[in-house]
Design a protein that fits this description.
With 325 residues, this protein is of the alpha/beta class. The chain has 15 helices and ten strands. It folds into two domains: 173 residues, NAD(P)-binding Rossmann-like Domain (Rossmann fold); 138 residues, N-(1-d-carboxylethyl)-l-norvaline Dehydrogenase, domain 2.
Length: 325
């Protein structure tokens, strides 16, 4: 079965490897970079992403949307959240109501909508599901035991993705709360920035755990206020991904926060953002605006916003934790 992945970042390659474990699957990744296409199809490697990883022959890369989508039976969208709208408009001429799985995490900045809503509105389909959970790309590549939550608009799409993606090292657990799963996947990146700030300030793991625990209550309230279910915080997309992203130096969100906490150097922050995709940075702006629009007061999010966007003293985060009711 032909499966298309839009995007060739590290996570796209990790998901491609998981899908390639099914012998009858042919995986085609779309890239905007012609050099990536040539390198991969000649060597089955992308040296700048995974230097020593060789990918199996049933994975290919193309820079043509038409070639990527022709006769495909399943599409994965794995790009930065801010590019989802453009990607949907680009694939629209070749799209034929094929089931779509969104692995990108974030809130669309222009419309303040979940990514599934953006995809549904542009492509006029409900054959959509989302996956989210505690999985770094390198751990997928290394075949470590990992897990994802999956939710969608219909069981047929969910079952198709689960049948092709779940394997001997990757577990998928179905949720009925697509809104909650998407919000968890987005907000945890924001909290990871805050966790990095705490660590950069020199505080202990105890203080990090304090922050994470407090954020669980806030995420739960955000999910409920925006139409999801509170218990979704207990899913792989919730507490599972939150713990992973908030405590690992593999997380770019955490590493960005660490820079802020350590010296709050504006030039260093800008340089990191220039050279790395920090989804939490963009998610923070969108979530802040969305909560303001919906008149939902979450002081922790407001404070993180003021520290990251308005250069408020990072030490105020630790003070807030102690004084929060």
């Amino acid at each position: 079965m032909k499966i298309t992945i839009i995007g060739t970042g590290a996570y796209s390659l990790g998901i491609a490897l998981m899908l390639s474990k099914k012998d009858n699957n042919e995986i085609v990744l779309w890239t905007e970079n012609k050099d990536n296409e040539i390198e991969f199809n000649n060597t089955h490697k992308l040296q700048h992403i995974f230097k020593d990883v060789y990918f199996p022959n049933n994975i290919k890369i193309t820079s043509s949307y038409e070639d990527a989508l022709k006769d495909t039976k399943l599409i994965f969208l794995i790009t930065g959240a801010k590019y989802i709208q453009d990607v949907c408009n680009n694939i629209k001429p070749f799209y034929k109501d094929t089931p779509i799985c969104i692995a990108s995490k974030g809130i669309h900045d222009d419309t303040l909508s979940t990514l599934s809503t953006v995809v549904k509105n542009i492509l006029k389909t409900k054959n959509i599901c989302v996956i989210s959970g505690p999985t770094f790309a390198i751990d997928l590549i290394n075949n470590e035991p990992t897990a994802l939550a999956i939710a969608g608009y219909n069981k047929k799409t969910i079952n198709l993705v689960k049948r092709n993606l779940q394997n001997d090292t990757l577990k998928l657990r179905v949720s009925s709360d697509i809104i909650g799963i998407e919000l968890c996947g987005s907000i945890k990146n924001v909290i990871a920035i805050a966790s990095g700030i705490i660590k950069g300030l020199g505080y202990s793991e105890s203080t990090q755990a304090f922050l994470i625990n407090e954020s669980v209550h806030d995420i739960k309230n955000i999910i409920y206020a925006l139409g999801g279910r509170k218990k979704t915080i207990l899913s792989f997309a919730g507490i599972g991904d939150l713990l992973l992203t908030c405590t690992s130096t593999k997380s770019r969100n955490y590493s960005f926060g660490y820079i802020i906490g350590k010296n709050n150097n504006k030039k260093e922050k800008e340089e990191y953002l220039k050279n790395n995709t920090v989804e939490g940075y963009y998610a923070l702006d969108s979530i802040y605006k969305l909560l303001k629009k919906k008149r939902v007061k979450i002081p922790l999010i407001t404070l993180i916003y003021d520290i990251v966007m308005n250069d408020k003293d990072p030490h105020s985060l630790a003070t807030f934790l102690i004084t929060k009711p």
